[in-house]
Amino acid sequence: MLTRIAIAETAQAATDIESFAGGEALAPTIYRELLQQAQVGVCVIQDGLYRYVNPKFAELFGFTEAKMVAGISVESCVHPLDVPTIVDNIRQRLAGQP
After folding, report:
1. Which string of DSSP letters, residue by residue, matches 35-95?
2. Angle formed by the axes of helices 27-37 and 2-21, to 10°?
3. Which H or E element spans position 20?
4. What are the pLDDT digits (tens) for 65-83?
5. Contact between residue 67 and residue 49 where contact means Cβ atoms under 8 Å apart
6. How many CB atoms are closer than 10 A to CB 68?
7. Please, what's the b/e burial string for 39-62 (b: 16 or more CB within 10 A of its CB; e: otherwise)?
8. Is the pTM of this model over 0.70?
9. Where does the pLDDT of residue 24 fall: very low under 50, low under 70, confident under 90, or very high at 90 and above?
């Protein structure tokens, strides 16, 4: 529940900043800056690989951002017994399920 609250607060802050900053032209820059400075780990996964990680996410796994997006798979960062659960969670999110 705490994570959802943090995400909602971050989304609201982004909306407020976007409105203040003059609209959508600055939105990508603002969102990237928010993600880069977030105190929670954020990643984008595509085809089982990390395509974007923020500094906090990389720190949690003990890698640099560059190293993580250079081909480290999701499966290589979790215990082998947890891989089926992680894969199922990702599948559910992609299907729009909570």
Report:
1. HHH-SS--EEEETTEEEEE-HHHHHHHT--HHHHTTT-BSGGGS-GGGHHHHHHHHHHHHT
2. 140
3. helix 2-21
4. 999 999 899 999 999 999 9
5. no
6. 20
7. eeebbebeeebbeebbebbbeebe
8. no
9. low
Does the pLDDT value for residue 26 go beyond 90? no
Instruction: State the burial class of residue 79 (Cβ atoms within 10 Å of its Cβ: 0-12, 13-18, 19+).
Output: exposed
| Residue 73, amino acid | S
DSSP lists the bridge partners of residue 43 as 53
Q: Which residue in the block uniquely carries the two structure tokens 């395509």? A: 51
Range in 5-9, 51-55, 65-69 the model is least confident about: 5-9
